[in-house]
Amino acid sequence: MSDRDEDALARFVEGFALELADAGMPRMAARVLVALLVTESGGATAGEIGELLRVSPAAVSGAVRYLGQLEMVVKEREPGERRDRYRLSDDMWYESIARKDRIYARWARLLGDGVKAAGSETTAGTRLEDTRRFFEFVTAQTPDIMRRWRAVRDSGH
Q1: CATH architecture assignment, domain 6-88
Q2: Whether pLDDT at 12 is above 70
Q3: Looking at residue 2, what is its pLDDT?
Q4: Are 16 and 31 in contact (CB under 8 A)?
Q5: Residue 13: is its pLDDT beyond 80?
Q6: Rounded mean pLDDT of the chain?
Q7: Where are the domains of the chain?
Q8: What is the 3-state secondary structure (H, E, C) of 19-85?
Q9: What is the pLDDT of residues 92-129, one digit of tens each?
């Protein structure tokens, strides 16, 4: 017997998806991601996702394509099956952070150009340098944070 509360899960899916959308993720992609998070298997067909979200499988299609580009969702097909299944990537949050880290490293390099262009002694140059240093700091700290996360995850605590 399961204590799974489908109504509460539906509210959770919509609530967390709204948070992800507020953070910049397209709304349907956020809904699909959270829908997959709450499946027992971590995977579903477009039809199953659509049923859970009360949308058409076509609406799910663009969302899973977007999530696939972010390497958060993987498309699979069992031999002999006609329908694709979508499942969460094993390290989706890790990959998401790693991708952001690469972006932040690029931003730090570009901000260095901005500092040179604005002049390091100007107010704008100082602001740009502070921003550059922030992204450089985040980039330098991320590998250690991810190592620590894997240790915590692997220990079960």
Answers
A1: Orthogonal Bundle (1.10)
A2: yes
A3: 72
A4: no
A5: yes
A6: 92
A7: 6-88, 92-155
A8: HHHHCCCCHHHHHHHHHHHHCCCCEEEHHHHHHHHCCCHHHHHHHHHHHHHCCCEEEECCCCCCCCE
A9: 888 788 888 889 999 999 999 999 999 999 999 999 99
Residues near 86 by beta carbon (within 8 Å), at least 6 away in sequence: 32, 36, 43, 44, 45, 46, 49, 64, 67, 68, 73, 74, 75, 76
Query: In this structure, are strands 73-76 and 85-88 parallel, antiparallel, or unpaired?
Result: antiparallel
CA-based nearest residue to 60, from 109, 18, 27, 98: 27
Query: Which residues are CB-neighbours of 115 under 8 A, at least 6 positions away?
Result: 125, 128, 129, 132
Residue 136 CA neighbour count, 13 Å, CB half? 11
Are 64 and 48 a contacting pair, CB within 8 Å? no
Return the pLDDT at 91.
80
Torsion sign over Cα 152, 44, 11, 23: positive
**In angstroms, rounded to a whole number, what is the distance separating the alpha carbons of residues 110 and 143?**
21
**Coil, helix or strand for 2?**
coil
Distances (CA, A) of 68 to 15, 32, 40, 75, 92: 22, 12, 20, 8, 10
